[in-house]
Amino acid sequence: MVKLNVGSMRYYRIDWIHKWNDEYPYCYYIQIGSDNYEVRKLEKYQDGRIYYATNKEEKETFLSSEPFRPKDYNSEDENEIIKCVEVSKEEFNEEWANKSNF
């Protein structure tokens, strides 16, 4: 994996393609701190819903209590495909800025 971000924060997009996609998010954007824990998370749904969480605010989701490991988010079987890629701080912040439109 090519490291896109300099400094302690890292940013990821997780694409989650489900056989039955309506009830689950299809995309996550996650900011990870230097301690490998989630700092901010955004969940996007096919119907336009966007849920998000920080350590101070939760809208229909929450930050994980487990350290983030990108390799845990790369898999494929007959029902789903999960792919995790590191993204730029700019891409993450653009998605984060648009969350309040929903």
From TrEMBL:
It comes from the Bacteria. This is DUF6881 domain-containing protein. Pfam families: DUF6881. Residues 10-99 form the DUF6881 domain.
